[in-house]
Specification:
The chain has 14 helices and no strands. With 289 residues, it is mainly alpha-helical.
Length: 289
């Protein structure tokens, strides 16, 4: 697989993650960790289904402790911190701090062997950050209040956790993508454990909610992680990091299409900044050899 093909596969994860918000809204009032347990279980099954006809695929689960620590720590650690952030801090501010991870991926990639951080990568990432700030600012922030500090800190740490997981995936490129199915299953079990300790079980009330859960598990909490793993291990990590800023923008667009958000000038300007930053960061992909 060529780096360009792997990068394009990684970009599909960004598209799938942009559906996360609208699908989560469609699931109703299911508690966060219960929803994580259900969707990560489906995501694991998505990976296991690809093993059909490949009897040697099960060997992918035999990985050193470091690989499991990075895989499960990244998937479960990030989502646990993000859910904590949304519980104790305003969603806009928490999301803004959380979306430092694309910039961190671009910056952290400089530490990888054979990678070089060029000025246009930093410029593209900073433009994406500016667009994201404008996107959330235009959405209206609720300000800071006493008791929100734990949530804001959790959102900030979550950004570092996901960026570290993504960059370390390149360092662990010998770990096959099939192993992600095992990481998803372990994450589902941990989420179920936390759910049992702090949440009350609420089951979906309509077929539409069940469908939304299934769609989440197959896409944003399933195939997206496998696509992202391929992109991080074999694609252009700097391009993927900068392009990740398109996630909140696309997410807002899908929310508007579903009637959960309204168009605004801020969204239009943010679109220009994020798209421009992504194109600048990815200019190497379009340049002639």
């Amino acid at each position: 697989m060529t780096p360009r093909a792997a990068t394009l596969i990684g970009l599909t994860a960004i598209l799938m993650w942009s559906l996360l918000a609208v699908l989560t809204v469609a699931t109703g009032k299911i508690p966060a960790f219960q929803l994580a347990a259900m969707t990560f279980l489906i995501g694991a099954l998505v990976g296991f289904l690809t093993w059909i006809g490949r009897s040697n695929a099960v060997g992918a689960l035999s990985q050193p402790p470091l690989a499991w620590l990075v895989g499960v720590g990244g998937l479960f650690g990030y989502h646990a911190l993000y859910f904590l952030a949304l519980r104790f801090a305003p969603p806009a501010e928490a999301s803004l701090l959380n979306y430092l991870w694309p910039l961190l991926i671009v910056l952290f990639s400089a530490a990888l062997p054979g990678e070089r951080l060029a000025p246009h990568h930093v410029i593209g990432a900073l433009l994406g950050l500016a667009g994201t700030v404008l996107l959330f600012a235009g959405n209206g922030g609720s300000g800071f209040a006493a008791g929100q500090a734990p949530g804001l800190i959790a959102a900030f740490v979550a950004a570092f956790v996901w960026a570290t997981y993504s960059v370390l995936s390149r360092k662990l490129e010998s770990v096959p993508t099939d192993a992600v199915a095992g990481f998803c299953l372990a994450t589902a079990l941990l989420a179920a454990l936390v759910h049992g300790m702090i949440e009350v079980t609420v089951w979906p009330e309509t077929p539409a909610q069940w469908l939304a859960i299934a769609a989440l598990g197959v896409g944003p909490v399933g195939a997206a992680f496998y696509a992202w793993d391929i992109g991080m291990k074999r694609g252009d990590i700097r391009v993927l990091g900068a392009a990740s800023y398109a996630t909140p923008l696309l997410s807002t667009a899908f929310l508007m299409l579903a009637g959960y958000a309204r168009p605004s000038v801020a969204i239009a300007i943010a679109a220009v900044l994020i798209a421009g930053g992504g194109l600048i960061a990815a200019k190497d992909m379009f340049a002639r050899r």
